[in-house]
TrEMBL record:
Protein name according to UniProt: DinB family protein
Top-level taxonomic group: Bacteria
UniProt-listed InterPro entries: DinB/YfiT-like, MST-like
Species of origin: Actinomadura barringtoniae
Pfam family, one: MST
């Protein structure tokens, strides 16, 4: 895992920060079986695999969709606001983790292709810079990585930050 550079440029620093949180997300699911990853640990049903699926969907949506890039079908449903957090019985852990990896790769291509000041357009027709999307996704990923830390601790007692730093 790369450290956020002390002297890097803005785009490099933002992407490195996002990558640290992405790696924390993956670290929180390491070593658990399918049952533990799907186990609802809050009254609302929050589970680790559902959070990974959600993060994949929002990465695709904020980066690829906002910047007009191709992406796969996303698990959003106007009639079910939690659809992207739910892992269906037919979806394997490997499927969800692969979905997250594809979303990350797609987002990284957008970050590489566009400048920090370049504008994308959301579904409401609002313009936003790549900078704004990066900051928003750092917030979103960090927030859910924190949820995942708590859920993981409830499952097996494991907690804390990962120490895999280059």
């Amino acid at each position: 895992m790369k450290r956020v550079p002390y002297t890097g440029d803005e785009k490099e620093s933002l992407q490195a920060s996002m990558d640290r949180h992405r790696e924390a997300v993956l670290w929180k699911v390491e070593g658990l079986d399918d049952e533990a990853l799907r186990r609802p640990m809050t009254p609302s049903g929050t589970n680790l695999l559902g959070l990974v699926k959600h993060l994949a969907a929002v990465e695709y949506w904020w980066f690829a969709d906002t910047f007009g890039q191709e992406h796969e079908e996303l698990p959003f449903d106007d009639d079910d606001e939690d659809a992207d957090l739910r892992v269906d019985p037919g979806e394997s852990t490997a499927d969800v983790l692969a979905f997250y990896e594809r979303a990350r790769a797609s987002s990284d291509r957008v970050i590489e292709k566009f400048g920090i000041e370049d504008l994308g357009t959301n579904e409401r027709g609002e313009s936003m810079t790549l900078r704004w999307v990066l900051i928003h996704m750092i917030e979103e990923t960090a927030r859910h990585a924190g949820h995942m830390d708590i859920v993981r601790e409830l499952i097996d007692g494991a907690s804390g930050d990962h120490d895999r730093v280059d």
